[in-house]
């Protein structure tokens, strides 16, 4: 497959956002000041590097292969790309030049069959594929693409773990080839009249598991999970966890550091591979004042609109959330996307492992960044002319200013 002319404009350069000295000072909140080993950076620092993302190749449906819906993806060190077809439960394998090599997997209950697919990535000549629904981890050889093992990741003796009653795995991240970070989310009870009501205080609890789903640690840390907004409407309690109420962000770097944040602040905490808090860094970026009217403009469903419209004003946030997503690459850099007033784009910050700003650029929300590896960025996009989804590989060019 070849790149369309629409992509050539990206060769020019991605807009670099230059720091502005007129940005007002923002005071650091007390709950952030109290953190140990906290580094506070300027609210709007100047980037050290220019960044250009150069489109080189597309991956997706061909004349011979039709992919239903693109899902998760991974790339290996040779440049091959593994793409999930969420409709047919296939994993498609593409060569670096975009040609289709093969496919494997299908829907089912047997070995190498899936109900849902989450491609975790590649490591040590292995491809790791998680089935969140069946809580099963599949390991493939990158040489032969043969299935090497299927592991049941339903944690053994979960019921014996204190505080894990009514919890299930909601997140599985690969630490190394033998260790996984598992986040257990509680069953949500949103009825305030229920004795098990918990929607006002939800936390995801993290443990380390081995390949066989065995616990190899006690709880190593926990993170605020979802924050619900409630409203009373004609005697009925309605609630929804809106993004603007705050969402957890988490990623694991190649050197097995765990980075966590809440979308409400540009505050990132760093933990070691066993979950011990090490340090944190904070950018006091000014926030936009939240308004009920603006929130209603971004919501389509009548149920959700009714919650926003009827919620008590004191329960609404004072400011819009700042962060949208967070990823790490194989050079132990963090890529953090931030919400801006223009809802069509995100502002991406590329940080070094200490949290210092390297580069900054704007990027369309419609071009979802999925993977950053070996000097390339892979984005899930829709062709403007055909309406067909495809994965586009960009070469990352970062130069000192």
Descriptive report:
By secondary structure, the chain is mostly beta strands. It has one domain: TolB, C-terminal domain (Neuraminidase). It contains three helices and 29 strands. The protein has a five-stranded mixed β-sheet with strand order 1-22-21-20-19, with no helix packed on it. It has a four-stranded antiparallel β-sheet with strand order 2-29-28-27, with no helix packed on it. Strands 3-4-5-6 form a four-stranded antiparallel β-sheet, with no helix packed on it. A hairpin with a 5-residue loop joins strand 24 and strand 25. The radius of gyration is 22 Å and the shape is globular.
Key traits:
single chain, 401 residues, mainly beta, Neuraminidase, five-stranded mixed sheet, four-stranded antiparallel sheet, 29 strands, 5% helix, 43% strand, disordered N terminus
Distance between the termini: 34 Å
> Number of folding domains?
1
What structural category characterises the helix and strand content? mainly beta
Overall pLDDT, averaged?
Answer: 89
| CATH arch. level architecture | 6 Propeller
- Rough outline: globular
Low-confidence stretches: 1-23
**Approximately how much helix is present in the residues?**
under 10%
Count of strand segments? 29
Might you state the CATH topology name?
A: Neuraminidase
Sheet of most strands: 5 strands, mixed
- Could you tell me the strand content as a percent range? 35-45%
Widest sheet: strand order?
Answer: 1-22-21-20-19
Whole-angstrom Rg? 22 Å
| CATH class designation | Mainly Beta
The name of the CATH superfamily reads TolB, C-terminal domain
Tally of DSSP helical segments:
3
């Amino acid at each position: 497959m070849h790149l369309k002319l629409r992509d050539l404009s990206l060769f020019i350069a991605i807009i670099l956002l230059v720091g502005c000295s007129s940005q007002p000072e923002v005071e650091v909140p007390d709950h952030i000041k109290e953190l140990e080993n906290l580094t506070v950076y300027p609210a709007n620092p100047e980037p050290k590097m220019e960044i250009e993302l150069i489109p080189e190749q597309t991956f997706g449906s061909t004349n011979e292969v039709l992919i239903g819906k693109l899902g998760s993806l991974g790339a290996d060190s040779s440049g091959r790309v593994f793409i999930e077809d969420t409709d047919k439960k296939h994993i498609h394998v593409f060569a670096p030049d975009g040609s289709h090599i093969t496919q494997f997997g299908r829907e089912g209950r047997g070995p190498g069959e899936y109900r849902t697919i989450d491609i975790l990535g590649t490591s040590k000549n292995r491809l790791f594929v998680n089935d969140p629904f069946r809580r099963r981890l599949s390991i493939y050889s990158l040489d032969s693409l043969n299935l090497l093992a299927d592991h049941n990741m339903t944690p053994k003796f979960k019921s014996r773990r204190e505080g894990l009653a009514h919890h299930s795995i909601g997140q599985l991240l690969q630490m190394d080839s033998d260790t996984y970070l598992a986040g257990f989310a509680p069953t949500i009870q949103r009825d305030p009249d229920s004795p098990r009501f918990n929607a006002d205080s939800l936390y995801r609890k993290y443990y380390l598991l081995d390949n066989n789903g065995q616990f190899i640690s006690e709880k190593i840390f926990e993170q605020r999970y979802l924050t619900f907004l409630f409203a009373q409407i004609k005697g009925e309690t309605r609630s929804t966890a809106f993004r603007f109420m705050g969402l957890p962000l988490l990623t694991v770097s190649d050197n097995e550091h765990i980075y966590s944040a809440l979308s409400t602040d540009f505050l990132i905490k760093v933990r070691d591979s066993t979950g011990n808090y090490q340090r944190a860094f904070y950018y006091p970026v000014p926030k936009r004042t939240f308004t009920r009217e603006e929130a209603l403009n971004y919501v389509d469903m009548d149920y959700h609109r009714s919650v926003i419209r009827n919620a008590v004003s004191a329960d609404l946030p004072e400011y819009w959330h700042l962060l949208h997503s967070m990823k790490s690459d194989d050079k132990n850099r963090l890529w953090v996307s931030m919400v801006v007033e223009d809802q069509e784009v995100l502002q991406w910050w590329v940080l070094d492992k200490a949290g210092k700003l390297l580069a900054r650029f704007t990027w369309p929300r419609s071009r979802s960044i999925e993977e950053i590896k070996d000097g390339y960025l892979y984005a899930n996009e829709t062709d403007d002319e055909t309406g067909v989804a495809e994965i586009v590989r960009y070469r990352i060019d970062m130069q000192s200013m």
